[in-house]
């Protein structure tokens, strides 16, 4: 897939998000990151807690005031969106699926009104009957029977709640969905159900996903491309196949070597790689940025390091 | 490699009384734990894995818990029959626990060193000064830098991984014979998880402790376990060595679990998934509780619950598919790949 022929739906440039700016306890949650998301793809964003991956998701959703940089969605700079009408229009095109399926649904509201509420906000249906029909339709899309419409969140299992959350996100017919750890709270067999659902919805509704997670094996399975974040920076960005086959940045290597795999025989002979922070502390930061090592494969490094990464890429690619 | 049994759980059945009725959380669980081994118990939420292990240490809520049947034999004593006083001498001393959430299981108002020393003072009758000294040694052993200074800190000053190390230090304080670890790394990042698992393995080998490891993460099981028990709806449905469970699974539920994890070499296809959700144990269904979700269910599965069938000396599974009269079925592709590997492993053993 040549990236050039694809339409960029979201473009993040030099995004910075500092908290307590200028004070002693300043936190650089996002430290100058740039990336694009193409229409119809899934970008996986992985990293440990505190790496800034959720903050990135929140910034894109316009849930926080960014420190500097730009976020362009469908050719509109989202930081310039103001007024209720424009904000609503923006919110309609971008939705979120949350981590905790119970905490993100109002326990006192029936499923009919949870999903219907999203329709009401954007005035998407003209009559009571149409609203009810639409909710039934959405429930069926996510694999729940229509009898569930009259029930309350506490009557559902975690997987079913997550399906309700997905139905609510789909209700407003968004182009872009941010899933922040959407499956980490679910059991293994239920995770597979939800991931399969997300994948088939992407095909049938031409959706674009930003999939934020720490579970690397699931991320690989669902994503087209993956960005690895650490300490507010994107350290490596590549197609998901290449990231696993040819990990270049030492941090990515350490992350991959830490995932336990369900193969006892491999686990017994496993070598772990430990990451040394010095790999991305540079004295002169002006020459350090995300450099393209191979087509579509980016590494955060100093200009002088590019040649050694290219060498490493060629070596690993041969195997 | 036959090792002596340190703990025997026999036909344990536990139910909870709720407003809606009685929930049969554990419905007859039997297993042994050998000296120096790690037995992993896997299963989805609600399968009864935590309940059966909490029963061992008798920390289930007294008010609404009913032990319906069973024995838990530890050093010739039935832990379900001894007095609370006697139990206090065992809990935390011979059988220690590590919990999932290190923040809620540490006392936020007590310094780390004192918290670890507390059990040393109580169980080993040390004076305070020596106990604190031991605590510092333990912190050092679990890899906490600058242990002396750290022992004077409070839990909130530690990161999640560090707190879990403190929990491990606390569990080790009285040289326990058994450590029950209930999802000890679930809340941690993968790199920190890797460190904690390595640490637990290292300490186990050094101190010859037995570990009962409860988790839902099959990757962690593959790394930690010597033997594995798979639980579903309050029963163990398959038990065997780690190779037998991962490379020669017999129960369709185990197949489903293994096939629903994304593997590294995938083509573009959907993940295998187990349909539906686990049964409500308020009303245990007739027959095998897994039958409604089972793609391989036979007619008898809806009538009668299968007993344990023997696969090898160490491997048992509760599925009618192992009955001599059962039809032959083909497991999911991923499981077939694993079975090929099992043959290879066996060949290697012979050579």
Please provide a brief summary of the model.
The complex is a heterodimer of chains A (319) and B (351). By secondary structure, chain A is an alpha/beta fold.
Report what the structure shows.
The complex is a heterodimer of chains A (319) and B (351). Chain A has 319 residues and is an alpha/beta fold. Chain A contains 11 helices and 12 strands. Chain A has one domain: 3-Layer(aba) Sandwich (Rossmann fold), CATH 3.40.50.300. In chain A, helix 3 packs across helix 4 (128-141). Chain B has 11 helices and 12 strands. Chain B folds into 2 domains: 5-229, Rossmann fold, CATH 3.40.50; 242-266 and 280-350, no CATH class. Chain B has an 8-stranded mixed sheet, with helices on both faces. With 351 residues, chain B is of the alpha/beta class. The model of chain B has no long low-confidence stretch (mean pLDDT 90).
Key structural traits:
heterodimer; A: 319 residues; Rossmann fold; 8-stranded mixed β-sheet; 4-stranded antiparallel β-sheet; 11 helices; 12 strands; 24% strand; globular; B: Rossmann fold
Topology diagram in text:
The complex is a heterodimer of chains A (319) and B (351).
Chain A: E1 8-19, E2 27-38, E3 42-46, H1 53-60, E4 68-73, E5 76-77, H2 84-93, E6 94-97, H3 111-121, H4 128-141, H5 158-171, E7 176-180, H6 188-205, E8 208-213, H7 216-222, E9 225-230, E10 233-239, H8 240-245, H9 250-258, H10 264-268, E11 288-294, E12 297-302, H11 306-318
Parallel strand pairs in A: 3-8, 3-9, 6-7, 7-8
Antiparallel strand pairs in A: 1-2, 1-4, 4-5, 9-10, 10-12, 11-12
Helix pairs in contact in A: 3-4, 3-5, 4-5
Chain B: E1 5-18, E2 21-34, E3 38-42, H1 49-56, E4 65-74, E5 77-78, H2 84-90, E6 95-98, H3 112-124, H4 128-141, H5 147-150, H6 160-172, E7 178-182, H7 190-207, E8 210-215, H8 218-224, E9 227-232, E10 235-241, H9 242-247, H10 252-259, E11 309-310, E12 316-317, H11 333-350
Parallel strand pairs in B: 3-8, 3-9, 6-7, 7-8
Antiparallel strand pairs in B: 1-2, 1-4, 4-5, 9-10, 10-12, 11-12
Helix pairs in contact in B: 3-4, 3-6, 4-6, 6-7
């Amino acid at each position: 897939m040549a990236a050039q022929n694809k339409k960029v739906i979201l473009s993040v440039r030099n995004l910075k998000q500092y908290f307590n700016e200028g004070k002693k306890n300043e936190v650089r949650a996002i430290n100058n990151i740039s990336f694009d998301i193409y229409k119809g793809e899934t970008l996986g964003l992985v990293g440990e807690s505190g790496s800034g991956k959720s903050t990135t998701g929140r910034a894109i959703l316009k849930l926080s005031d960014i420190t500097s940089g730009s976020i362009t969605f469908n050719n509109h700079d989202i930081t310039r969106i103001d007024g209720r009408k424009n904000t609503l229009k923006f919110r309609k095109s971008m939705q979120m699926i949350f981590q905790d399926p119970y905490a993100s649904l109002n326990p006192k509201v029936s499923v009919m009104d949870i999903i219907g509420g999203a329709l009401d906000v954007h005035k998407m249906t003209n009559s009571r009957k149409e609203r009810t029909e639409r909710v039934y339709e959405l429930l069926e899309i996510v694999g729940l029977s229509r009898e569930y419409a009259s029930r309350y969140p506490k009557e559902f299992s975690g997987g079913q709640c997550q399906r309700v959350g997905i139905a609510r996100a789909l209700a407003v017919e968004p182009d872009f969905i941010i899933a922040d750890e959407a499956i980490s709270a679910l059991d293994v067999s239920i995770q597979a159900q939800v991931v399969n659902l997300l994948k088939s919805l992407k095909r049938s509704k031409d959706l674009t996903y930003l999939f934020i997670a720490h579970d690397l094996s699931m991320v690989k399975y669902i994503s087209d491309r993956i960005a690895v974040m650490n300490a507010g920076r994107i350290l490596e960005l590549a197609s998901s196949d290449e990231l696993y086959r040819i990990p270049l940045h030492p941090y990515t290597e350490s992350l991959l070597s830490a995932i336990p795999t369900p193969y006892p025989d491999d686990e017994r002979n496993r070598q772990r790689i430990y990451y040394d922070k010095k790999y991305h502390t540079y004295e002169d930061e002006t020459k350090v940025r995300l450099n393209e090592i191979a087509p579509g494969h980016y590494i955060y490094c100093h200009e002088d390091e590019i040649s050694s990464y290219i060498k490493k890429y060629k070596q690993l690619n041969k195997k | 490699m036959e090792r002596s049994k340190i703990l025997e759980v026999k036909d344990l059945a536990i139910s909870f009384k709720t407003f809606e009725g009685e929930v049969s959380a554990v419905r007859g669980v039997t297993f042994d734990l050998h000296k120096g081994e790690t037995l992993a118990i896997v299963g989805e939420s609600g399968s009864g894995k935590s309940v059966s292990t909490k029963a061992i240490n008798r920390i289930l809520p007294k008010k609404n818990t009913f032990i319906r049947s069973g024995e838990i034999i530890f050093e010739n004593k039935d832990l379900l029959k001894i007095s609370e006083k006697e139990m206090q001498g065992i809990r935390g001393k011979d059988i220690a626990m590590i919990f999932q959430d290190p923040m809620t299981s540490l006392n936020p108002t007590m310094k780390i060193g004192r918290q670890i020393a507390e059990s040393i003072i109580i169980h080993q009758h040390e004076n305070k000064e020596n106990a604190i000294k031991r605590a510092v040694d333990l912190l050092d052993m679990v890899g906490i830098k600058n242990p002396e200074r750290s022992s004077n800190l409070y839990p909130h000053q530690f990161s999640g991984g560090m707190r879990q190390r403190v929990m491990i230090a606390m569990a080790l304080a009285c040289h326990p014979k058994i450590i029950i670890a209930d999802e000890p790394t679930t809340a941690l990042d993968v790199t920190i998880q890797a460190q904690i698992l390595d640490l637990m393995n290292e300490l186990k080998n050094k101190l010859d402790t037995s570990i009962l490891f409860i988790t839902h993460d099959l990757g962690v099981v593959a790394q930690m376990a010597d033997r594995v028990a798979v639980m579903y709806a309050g029963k163990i449905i398959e038990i065997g060595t780690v190779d037998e469970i991962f490379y020669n699974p017999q129960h369709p539920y185990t197949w489903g679990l293994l096939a629903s994890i994304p593997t590294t070499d995938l083509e573009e296809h959907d993940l295998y998934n187990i349909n539906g959700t686990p049964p409500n144990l308020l009303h245990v269904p007739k027959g095998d509780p897994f039958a409604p979700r089972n793609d391989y269910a036979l007619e008898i599965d809806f009538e009668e619950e299968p007993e344990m069938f023997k696969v090898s000396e160490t491997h048992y599974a509760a599925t009618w598919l192992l009955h001599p009269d059962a039809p032959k079925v083909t497991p999911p592709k991923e499981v077939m790949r694993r079975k090929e590997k099992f043959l290879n492993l066996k060949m290697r053993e012979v050579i």
